[in-house]
Amino acid sequence: MKGFHIITPVKDSIELTLQTAEAIMASEITVPFKYTIYNDFSTEENTHKLKEASERLGFELVNLSDITDHPSPNYLLVLQMSQKKAIEAESGLLIVESDVIVRPHTLQTLFDKASQNSDCGMAAAVTVDEQGVINFPYLYAKGKENREFTTRKRFSFCCTLLTLDYLKAFDFHQLNPEKHWHDVTISHQSLKCGFKNYLFTNNPVWHRPHGSRPWKQLKYTNPLKYYWLKFTKGLDKI
């Protein structure tokens, strides 16, 4: 990998997104990178805020409303577009979701560690809460703090690097278009392609779970309503 293509998909949740963007653009990165926010049909007001931030911070803004009329979420389209761009740039694809705050060395460390392991398909930073305690979606890593290890358990895309070798091995056009989210499938496919997935609990990021999709908080506060919405409205297909 010569560098990486960093992406953040977002629909509204602008205040958190801007914090994410500011942390990424302030990162201490020594390899070439390009940072793109994919705006997935945010409101007109929030789209304007993203445009202002892109000019101020220096990231690229892609408004999906200029590309498709398919309703949000358009995560699959974002993955397909960014995979193509990353391969063309001979770069890895680093996904940082809009409810995550990275540390100054987070992204470069992921790149370095992935580059040092030729069998790496995916490299993920563990997520923690404001007190530094491992939280969702990596609760299975509790008890393995301050380590780096391979795992066959699924990764989230909270802060995850997909290596160039893996991007070349698996075409995202093969993903199921009926699903909304693809992190579980892509995690498992990496293993099927013969790669290993590395989780770094010594390289944490601050995660506000579901900050970008507040309705998903219902899973914990009102599970009956969450599953009613999930199944009656076809939301959150994983």
What key phrases describe this protein's structure?
238 residues; single chain; nine-stranded mixed sheet; 34% helix; alpha/beta
Describe this structure in words.
It is globular, with a radius of gyration of 17 Å. The model has no long low-confidence stretch (mean pLDDT 91). Helices cover 34% and strands 22% of the residues. Helix 1 (14-25) packs parallel to helix 2. The two termini are 29 Å apart. It has 238 residues and is α/β, with parallel strands linked by helices. The chain has 8 helices and 9 strands. Strands 1, 2, 3, 4, 5, 6, 7, 8 and 9 form a 9-stranded mixed beta sheet that branches. Helix 1 links the parallel strand 1 (4-10) and strand 2.
Oligomeric state of this protein: single chain
Please report the total strand number as a whole number. Answer: 9
In whole angstroms, how far apart are the ends? 29 Å
What is the helix content? 25-40%
Anisotropy-based shape: globular
Strand content: 15-25%
Number of helical segments? 8
Largest beta-sheet characterization: 9 strands, mixed
Estimate the mean pLDDT confidence: 91
Radius of gyration: 17 Å
Residue windows where pLDDT falls under 50 for at least 5 positions: none
- What structural class is derived from the secondary structure elements? alpha/beta
How would you spell out the order of helices and strands? EHEHEHEEHEEEHHEHH
